[in-house]
Structures are given as C-alpha cells and as structure tokens.
Amino acid sequence: MNISKSVFLLKSTTSKSILDVHSRINVSLAPCCQCLHNQNNKTFSRSRKFSSGYHFSHNKLNGRKFLQPNFFPEQSLKTSFSGIRQHNFPPNGSCFKGKDAYRKQTRNLSVTPKAILDASPKSLQPYLRLIRFDKPIGTWLLYWPCTWSIGLAAAPGHLPDLWLLTLFGAGAFFMRGAGCIVNDMWDRDIDKKVERTKLRPLASGELTYFQGLCCLGGMLSVSLGILLQLNWYSVVLGAASMVLVITYPLAKRVTFWPQAMLGLTFNYGTMLGWAAVTGGIDWTVVLPLYIGSMAWTLSYDTIYAHQDKYDDMLIGVKSTALKFGDKTKHWLTGFGTIMIGGLTLTGVALDQTWPYYAGVSITAAHLAYQLYTVDLNNADDCAAKFRSNTGLGFVMFIGIVTGTLMKTQKNEKDQLDDVK
C-alpha cells in the first residue's frame, strides 16, 4: 500500500478518529480506521512528517487488522496506539501482543548509554541526562588527551600504566558530568531559548537548581577521590583546573572565543597525565602537546558551534562559529596545521618511532577529510563530523602506544651502530 505524497500524522483535537490521516493517503484505510475506532483512541500523540515512497501494510492481531508502518526504526517514534504508550510499531513486522509483551520483545540486551538511560528508574533519568550520560562523546574528547600524555610518558618498550588509564577514564566521566552541570546552571535561562538545549533538565524545570547543585557536589566528591590517588604534584595541578571548569561557561558572554577557553579546560589532562606518571612536567614535550590538543578542540568545537549559530545570533551568545562566519574553513585549516605541528614536535622531543608518525599522518588525513566534507550549514552534518573526532583520538593513542613500544628496538639498534 503506497503513499503517493508526504504524510502529516496530526493529533486530532476535535475527533477520536483518524480522518486527518485519511485525507492525506490516497488509499482506503477502512479496516485500520475501524480498528482504531474500536479502541476509542485519539489519532497520534505527536506530529510527524514522513517522506513519500514509504509504505504501510496490514497485520492481524486476534482477528483484527492494524495499520503497520514498516519503516519505523526501533524506538524512533513515540506514538500512542491502543494504550501501547511511548512505543512505536514493532520494527520486525510482528503485530501487537499487548503493551507488556512488546516491551519485553524490544528490551534486548544492550549496553549502549542510551539503552542504559532508558532502562534506568524514571527518577534517575533526569540526573543521567543532566550529566549527558547518553552522549558520551564529551567524555571521550576529554579522555583522549589524557591517554596521549600517559602513553608518551611510559618507559620505552612498555605499555602505558593501565591503572592510571582507568583512573583518568573514571575522572573524565565524572569531571565531564560536573562540567555539564556547571554549564547548565550558568546557562539555564539561555538554554530555554535554544532549540537544541531547551529540554535539558534544568532549563525545562525537570530538575530544580538545588537538585542540580546536589548532583554537582556528588560528581565533584567522586572526582576528588580519584584525584587523591595520584601524586601530590598532580593533586595540586588537578585542583587548579577547577578555575577553568567553573569559568568556562561564562566565556561565551564576553568573547567570541569561548572555544579557546574550552580548549584550555578540556586538554588540561595533557599536563596532568604526564605529571601523574613522572611527578613533574617536561615542557619541551607537554607544551607542544597541549597547544596541539587545544587547536584540535578549537577545530571540532567550532564545527559543533555551527549547529546553534542562528539561535546564538538571536540571543546574543558569542562563538567562533559567528566570529569566523564564511571564513570558518580557513581557520579550521590553521587549527589543523597547528595540531599536526604540535604532535610532530612532541614526537621529535621524545625521539618517537614510525608508528607514532603514522598515527599523526592518519590524524592529518582525518582532519583534511573533515574539513573538505563538512557542511557548516547542515546541523546534522556538523554533529556527525564532531562525533567523528572520537575515532581520531583513538587512532592517535594507538600510534603513541605502538611507537613507544618500538622505541626499545630503535635504541638497541642505535647502540649497535655506535659500537661499530
């Protein structure tokens, strides 16, 4: 059964029928309509537009026929048919067997952050969304610079310290969560005016300011416990980062360079990771790594900021996306060059081997592809390019680890050459 044009499924405000659907589908839906009438159900729980070319099919349930949209991806559309609330049609084409049976069917084993959030108690879900539990990209982007410095600080021929990698992974999760709460507390009124952020728990009123503050206290307490596992030099250095965490959300109010402030904050782990391994900082290694990582953040967060540029213009919030405008790609080219230069200088300072530089080359290729293909006027494409930077961080980490492992072989070869 084909639909010859786009379809709007609209909630009926005057009738308990689906006549609003009839007028937009050039086929007879009498059996389905009768079924829905028998269920005394209002049309749809929300509006949704479907492109032409999709199709419907009829499936039987206990001798009755149901309208089955075969194109719904699982959990993508929140509809309400016959009491089966907050669930879409079965994606595998099976018919309804009741609310509980279908929920059991769709609850397959899944460990994705989104699935964990959905399976959590309703009272806990606002707090998980407050810390962006279902959007782990921020945690990864905070974590990768830490792993880079820990891997670079490892002894030649050795793997990075697994315990430190674990501690920094947990620290990245909790500190990113704390940063999100601080950001939402500062920006509660601003978030209400931005389409992408207006449903955040504090902006929407789902959580109160006090509840957000309590959650922040818990996240910071756990973060402090993790920090205290490190040497005292690292403890002092890590505690100093709180100034950046608290003040970063204010940058967008006073400067067009809030992404630079984010770069200072998000890449603080390059210093902290090195200090955790060595007990100090070698600036000939850490400084170019820190600057290169900051340039990386400026690149991906400028792309990210292009999602909200129209809302930002309306409410007066500043960003590099607005600062650069049509010249954004020129600036991104510069940031990419600085990043690759910083990583190269770090490798030279540490006498790294070819796998490290292979990682740098792949990173450069990724940045070039991202720059060439990104559509800065397409919010979905900007979000996709932003998320792709997680893979970049992983590739660079693998290059660092394998490069450090091979340093022993290189040193032995150099010693043999010296003897000869």
TrEMBL record:
<feature type="transmembrane region" description="Helical">
    <location>
        <begin position="386"/>
        <end position="406"/>
    </location>
</feature>
<dbReference type="GO" id="GO:0005743">
    <property type="term" value="C:mitochondrial inner membrane"/>
</dbReference>
<feature type="transmembrane region" description="Helical">
    <location>
        <begin position="207"/>
        <end position="226"/>
    </location>
</feature>
<feature type="transmembrane region" description="Helical">
    <location>
        <begin position="162"/>
        <end position="186"/>
    </location>
</feature>
<dbReference type="Pfam" id="PF01040">
    <property type="entry name" value="UbiA"/>
</dbReference>
<comment type="pathway">
    <text>Cofactor biosynthesis; ubiquinone biosynthesis.</text>
</comment>
<dbReference type="InterPro" id="IPR039653">
    <property type="entry name" value="Prenyltransferase"/>
</dbReference>
<dbReference type="InterPro" id="IPR044878">
    <property type="entry name" value="UbiA_sf"/>
</dbReference>
<feature type="transmembrane region" description="Helical">
    <location>
        <begin position="137"/>
        <end position="156"/>
    </location>
</feature>
<keyword id="KW-0812">Transmembrane</keyword>
<dbReference type="InterPro" id="IPR030470">
    <property type="entry name" value="UbiA_prenylTrfase_CS"/>
</dbReference>
<keyword id="KW-0414">Isoprene biosynthesis</keyword>
<keyword id="KW-0808">Transferase</keyword>
<comment type="function">
    <text>Catalyzes the prenylation of para-hydroxybenzoate (PHB) with an all-trans polyprenyl group. Mediates the second step in the final reaction sequence of coenzyme Q (CoQ) biosynthesis, which is the condensation of the polyisoprenoid side chain with PHB, generating the first membrane-bound Q intermediate.</text>
</comment>
<dbReference type="InterPro" id="IPR006370">
    <property type="entry name" value="HB_polyprenyltransferase-like"/>
</dbReference>
<keyword id="KW-0472">Membrane</keyword>
<keyword id="KW-0999">Mitochondrion inner membrane</keyword>
<dbReference type="GO" id="GO:0006744">
    <property type="term" value="P:ubiquinone biosynthetic process"/>
</dbReference>
<keyword id="KW-0496">Mitochondrion</keyword>
<feature type="transmembrane region" description="Helical">
    <location>
        <begin position="331"/>
        <end position="349"/>
    </location>
</feature>
<feature type="transmembrane region" description="Helical">
    <location>
        <begin position="232"/>
        <end position="251"/>
    </location>
</feature>
<dbReference type="InterPro" id="IPR000537">
    <property type="entry name" value="UbiA_prenyltransferase"/>
</dbReference>
<dbReference type="GO" id="GO:0008299">
    <property type="term" value="P:isoprenoid biosynthetic process"/>
</dbReference>
<feature type="transmembrane region" description="Helical">
    <location>
        <begin position="272"/>
        <end position="291"/>
    </location>
</feature>
<protein>
    <recommendedName>
        <fullName>4-hydroxybenzoate polyprenyltransferase, mitochondrial</fullName>
        <ecNumber>2.5.1.39</ecNumber>
    </recommendedName>
</protein>
<keyword id="KW-0831">Ubiquinone biosynthesis</keyword>
<feature type="transmembrane region" description="Helical">
    <location>
        <begin position="356"/>
        <end position="374"/>
    </location>
</feature>
<keyword id="KW-1133">Transmembrane helix</keyword>
<dbReference type="GO" id="GO:0008412">
    <property type="term" value="F:4-hydroxybenzoate polyprenyltransferase activity"/>
</dbReference>
<comment type="similarity">
    <text>Belongs to the UbiA prenyltransferase family.</text>
</comment>
